[in-house]
Amino acid sequence: MDSALSNTRFSDLKPPLSDPVLQALTASGVEFCTPVQAETIPLLCSFKDVAVDAATGSGKTLAFVVPLFEILRRASTNPKPHQVMGMIIAPTRELSSQIYDAAKQFVSTSPNFKCVLLVGGRQVKADMQRIQEEGANLLIGTPGRLYDIMERMDRLDFRSFEILILDEADRLLDMGFEKQLTGIISRLPKLRRTGLFSATQTEAVEELARAGLRNPVRVKVVAEYITPSGLSIEYMECDAYKKPSQLVDILVKNKSQKTMVYFMTGACVDYWKVVLSCLAPLKDFNLIAIRGKMKQKARDKALASFASLSSGVLLCTDVAARGLDIPGVDCIVQYDPPQKPNDFVHRVGRTARMGRQGSAIVFLLPKEEAYVEFLRKKGVPLQERICPDDVSDVVLQLRSAARKDRDIMEKGKRALKSYVRAYKKHGCSYIFRWKELELGKLGMGFGLLRLPAMSEVKHNTLSTEGFTPVADINLEEIKYKDKAREKQRRKNLLVKKEAKEQDPKPQKTNKNPSAAAKVTKKKTAKKRGAEQTVEDADELTREYRLLKKLKKGTIDEAEFAMMTGTENLL
After folding, report:
1. Distance (Å, rounded) from C-alpha 204 to C-alpha 443?
2. For the whole model, what pTM was predicted?
C-alpha cells in the first residue's frame, strides 16, 4: 500500500480526539494521518473491533496507540494501581519496546496512569515486584512474559479491562505463541475492544480473528503493491562465490548511507561480522550485528547504536525484520532470501517508511530465479540488476583472514553448515532445492579453506565442483588471534595427546577383513551408545536446572522453551 500521508488531519477525525491526545501528537510533530490511521482510529474509538491488514511502514503503531489512550481516557474514574485496562501484545522484545516508547508520550494524557513493559531478558521476580510497588494499568509486552505475569500475580484486576491489541498477529502465531495467547485471552472480559494488526493475513490469523473478535470491521487499504510506493526493489542473480564481492561493492558505493544486510542464520551473522571487519575496503565502516541468541542488553545496545548513526551497516537475521522502526534506513540488502516467504516484505519494509524513499536488493543464485516471478505474483515489483564483472574479488581476502585467525576459520564452517541446514527447511522448497545447492561454490563464497565434514556434502553430487581447497596448510596449526583461547586450545590438545599415549588401544590384526569390520562396527556402535547416554544425562541435568529457574521466576516460559529447543524462536 502507499504509506504516504493522507489529507486527513488527526484533528478532523470523527469522533473527535481529546485535546490532550491531539497535543501529544502535535508535540511529536505529527499532524496528518496515514490511510490506515484515518480508517482505523475512528472505528476503535467508536467501540468497534478491527482486523487491520496494512503494509509494513504504514503507521500501524499510532493506528492503535492513539485510540487506545482515547478509550482509556474516557473511563468514568481514574484506574486503581493494579486495575489493568489495556494490553498490547507483540511478538518480539524489540517491537514491544518500540511500542512502549511510542506509548510513553501519551501516558501523561491520562492522570495517575501506569504503563508497564513486560518482556524477557530480565527476571520475572523483578517485574512482579515493580508491578506490586508501582501498579500497572496498561501492559505492553511479549506473550510469554505477559502470560507468566498473569499466571503468577493474582493481584492484577482485569474486571474493568477495555482494549486488547495484537500487533504482528501472523508473527505471533508463527512463533508458536498459541498457548500463551489462548491463556491471556481467556482471562480477559469478553466485553472489550480488540484490534488485530498484521501486514500479512494468513489462515491462522483468520482463525484468531474469529476466536477473539466480535464482528470485526476489516480494514484493508487497497494498493497495487504490498510494498511502500517509495521503495525501489532489485534482484541480482550471481553465483555463490561472487556474492561476497558484490556485497562489499554495494556497501562501499553506499558508504554514506544507512544499510541493513539480512542473512539466513545467526551463525552467518557472526561470521560475516568478524570477517567483513578484516577487509580493507570496510576497515573504517560502522559494522553492527544483531541476532536472536544475543543477550537482550546486547540486542538493545546494537539497535540503539545503529539507530543513532547517520551512516553504517546492520548485519542481522529476521529478528530485525518485523515492525522495527529504525530511523533513516536507506537500503536493504538481502544477502540470503528469507526462509519464510512473507518475511521478504517485512525485511524491505525497514526502509521507505511513512512516505520516504528507499532501495532494496536481493541476491539470488542462478537456480533460484523462479523466486522473482513468485514475488511478483504476490504483489512485489522487482527489477533486475545485472551482476557486474568489474568488482574486486574478495574471496582471497576471506581465506587469508581464515588462515590468520582460527576463530574466523571456525565461524566460517559453522556459518556454512547452518546455512545449508536452514536452506533444507526453506518455506519455498520447490524453488530453493537444497539438493541442487552447489556446495563447492558456496564454500568458496564463505572463504573456507576446506569443505567441512557434513552429510549434505557427502550426498550432494555437486559437493566439490567449484571448490579449490588450500593445500599448503595444516588446519591444526592455525592459531586463535586471542592468546587466551589459543593457550586453552593448546592445553586441550596436550591433554588429548597424553590420554592417547596412556591408552593407545592397538588394533589386532585379523585375517578376515569382513569380520574385523564387523567387530569395529560393533565397538563403534557401543561407543556411540555410551556417548549418547552421557549426552542425554547432561541434557536432562541442564533441563532440570532450567526448570528450577523457571519455577523460581528467574526465567519465563518463553525463555525456557527457547533454551530447551521446544519453541521455534529466532
Report:
1. 38
2. 0.67
Among 446, 441, 442, 423, which Cα is nearest to 433's?
423
Confirm if 562 and 569 have CB atoms less than 8 A apart.
yes
| Residues 90 and 145: beta-carbon distance below 8 Å | no
Q: Which three cell numbers stand for residue 409?
A: 576459520
Please tell me whether residue 512 adopts helix, strand or coil conformation.
Answer: coil
Of 279, 13, 18, 319, nearest in space to 174 by CA: 319
pLDDT, the chain, mean: 85
pLDDT of 270-329, one tens digit each? 999 999 999 999 999 999 999 988 888 898 899 999 999 999 999 999 988 876 778 899
216: pLDDT strictly greater than 90: no
Distance from C-alpha of 211 to C-alpha of 234, rounded to nearest angstrom? 40
| DSSP three-state, residue 207 | helix
Q: Which helix (H) or strand (E) holds 363?
A: strand 358-364
Which residue from 78, 56, 55, 68 is spatially nearest to 100, judged by alpha carbons? 68
From the number of C-beta atoms within 10 Å of its C-beta (0-12, 13-18, 19+), residue 89 rates as: buried
Q: Which amino acid, residue 527?
A: K
Residue 316 has φ and ψ, to the nearest 5°, of -155, 170
Question: How many residues in the chain?
Answer: 570
Bridge partners, residue 358, by sequence: 231
C-alpha of 505 from chain center: 49
* CA atoms of 68 and 518, how far apart (whole Å): 71
Domains delineated in the chain: 10-220 (3.40.50.300), 231-458 (3.40.50.300)
Residue 194 forms beta bridges with which residues? 164
DSSP secondary structure letter of residue 409 = H
Alpha helices in 187-265 (DSSP H): 203-212, 243-253
**pLDDT tens-place string over residues 281-290:** 999 999 999 9
Is residue 32 within 8 Å of 87, Cβ to Cβ? no
Alpha-carbon distance of 62 to 402, in angstroms, equals 47
For residues 380 and 17, give the distance between their C-alpha atoms in angstroms, rounded to a whole number.
36
**What are the φ and ψ backbone dihedral angles of 380, each rounded to 5 degrees?**
-110, 110
What Rg value do the Cα atoms of the chain yield, rounded? 27
What are the backbone angles phi and psi of residue 483, rounded to the nearest 5°?
-65, -35
pLDDT range class, residue 459, cuts 50, 70, 90: low
pLDDT above 70 coverage of the chain, percent:
82
